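Customer escalation, tier 2.

The customer says the design service returned an amino acid string that "doesn't look like it belongs to this structure." They asked us to rerun it and document both sides in this ticket. The original C-alpha cells are below, unchanged.
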C-alpha cells in the first residue's frame, strides 16, 4: 500500500514538473522575425484601371519591414510602408513610393501581417497591385507555397498601456490594453443582405487564413455603375468583389463564404491598414463603421500617442521608446475635424 502511494505521488510530481517546464518554456519563448523562403510572382487585373499588373514578392533581411517599389520607372527605390506615406484612401489604400503611387496594397499588407511575415520586398509593374479575388486568399496561398522562413532577429511589439480612440462622423476606433491582439468590428448597412453585423477576431497566425483572409471586398451595383461612369473601378467585377443589388441581393453565383463575410472583410482591411504601423500589436480594438481613411488616421494617432504604449524590444530584453515617423504633409488634411483621444 505504501509502495503504491509513493508511485502515485511520483507520477503526480513528474506531471507537475512537466507542466512547470512547459510553462517556463512558453514564457521564455520569443517570437522571431519572419520572411518568405523564396520569391513568387502574382499577376492580375488592377481594380481602378482594369489593366493587368504584376507583383513580385521577394525575401528581405531582418528589420526591413514591408517595402514596395515601382519597377516600371527607372531609379525607383524600395519604400518601407508606414501610415505616413499613405497618399489616398479613395476606394483603397494608396501609398507614395518616391513620389509614385501604388494603390490597393491593403490585402497584401494584411496577408503579410496575418501569416506572420515581418520582412518582404514587393516590386509592382505599375500603379496598382492586382486585386485578385477581392480578398487576401491568393496572396496567402502563394506565401504558404513559397514557405515561411524564421530569421535571427526578435520581433518588436507595440503594447498598448492606455486607451487611444478617434471619432469622425459616427465612425469610431478605440484600442485598450489587452494580453493579446483582437479586433471587434461593428458594421451597419441599410441593405437586407448585410444589416448590422458584429464580429470579434482574436488574432492567431494559424487561423487568420480561414477566418479573415478569405473574406472578399463588397460593393453595391448602383455604386459600381456610378463609379464606372466616372472612369473609376474599371477592373471591378463579380470575379473580385461581392456585388449586391438592391432587390436581388448578392449577385455572385457562388454566394457568400461566410454569412457575415462583410464584417470579416472590414476586419481584413483593418489588419492591412494597421500593418503599416510596422510592429506586432498587443491590444483590444473596437471599431464601428470604420474604413480606410479612419483606419489610417487611427494608425497615426496611435503612433503619436507615445505615452499610451511601449515598444517591447526583446532582443535587448528591455522596453524602449521609439519615435513615430515624420508626418507626410501631403496627407495632413486627412486628420482635420477628427476627434482624437489618448488618456
Amino acid at each position: 500500500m505504501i509502495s503504491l502511494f509513493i508511485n502515485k505521488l511520483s507520477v503526480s510530481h513528474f506531471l507537475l514538473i512537466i507542466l512547470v517546464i512547459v510553462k517556463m518554456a512558453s514564457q521564455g519563448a520569443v517570437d522571431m522575425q519572419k520572411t518568405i523562403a523564396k520569391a513568387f510572382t502574382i499577376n492580375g487585373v488592377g481594380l481602378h484601371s482594369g489593366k493587368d499588373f504584376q507583383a513580385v514578392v521577394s525575401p528581405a533581411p531582418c528589420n526591413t519591414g514591408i517595402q514596395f517599389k515601382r519597377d516600371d520607372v527607372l531609379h525607383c527605390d524600395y519604400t518601407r510602408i508606414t501610415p505616413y506615406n499613405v497618399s489616398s484612401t479613395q476606394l483603397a489604400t494608396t501609398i507614395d513610393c518616391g513620389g509614385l503611387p501604388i494603390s490597393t496594397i491593403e490585402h497584401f499588407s494584411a496577408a503579410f501581417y496575418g501569416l506572420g511575415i515581418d520582412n518582404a520586398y514587393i516590386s509592382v509593374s505599375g500603379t496598382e497591385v492586382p486585386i485578385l479575388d477581392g480578398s487576401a486568399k491568393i496572396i496567402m496561398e502563394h506565401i504558404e507555397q513559397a514557405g515561411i522562413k524564421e530569421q535571427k532577429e526578435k520581433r518588436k511589439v507595440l503594447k498598448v498601456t492606455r486607451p487611444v480612440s478617434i471619432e469622425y462622423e459616427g465612425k469610431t476606433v478605440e484600442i485598450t490594453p489587452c494580453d493579446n491582439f483582437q479586433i471587434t468590428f461593428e458594421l451597419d448597412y441599410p441593405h437586407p443582405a448585410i444589416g448590422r453585423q458584429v464580429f470579434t477576431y482574436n488574432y492567431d497566425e494559424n487561423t487568420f487564413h480561414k477566418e479573415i483572409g478569405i473574406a472578399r471586398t463588397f460593393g453595391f451595383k448602383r455604386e459600381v455603375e456610378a463609379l464606372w461612369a466616372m472612369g473609376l473601378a474599371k477592373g471591378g467585377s463579380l470575379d473580385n468583389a461581392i456585388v449586391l443589388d438592391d432587390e436581388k441581393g448578392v449577385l455572385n453565383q457562388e454566394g457568400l463564404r461566410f454569412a457575415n463575410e462583410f464584417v470579416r472583410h472590414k476586419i481584413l482591411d483593418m489588419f492591412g491598414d494597421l500593418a503599416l504601423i510596422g510592429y506586432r500589436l498587443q491590444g483590444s480594438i473596437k471599431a464601428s463603421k470604420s474604413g480606410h481613411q479612419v483606419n489610417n488616421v487611427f494608425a497615426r494617432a496611435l503612433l503619436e500617442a507615445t505615452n499610451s504604449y511601449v515598444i517591447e524590444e526583446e532582443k535587448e530584453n528591455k522596453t524602449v521608446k521609439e519615435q513615430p515617423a515624420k508626418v507626410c504633409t501631403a496627407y495632413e488634411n486627412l486628420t482635420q475635424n477628427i476627434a482624437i483621444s489618448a488618456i
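Tier 2 assessment: The sequence is consistent with the input. Confidence is low (pLDDT under 50) at residues 1-6, 19-28, 325-331. The helical segments are 2-28, 106-114, 137-146, 208-213, 221-229, 261-274, 292-304. Sent an explanation to the customer and offered a walkthrough call.
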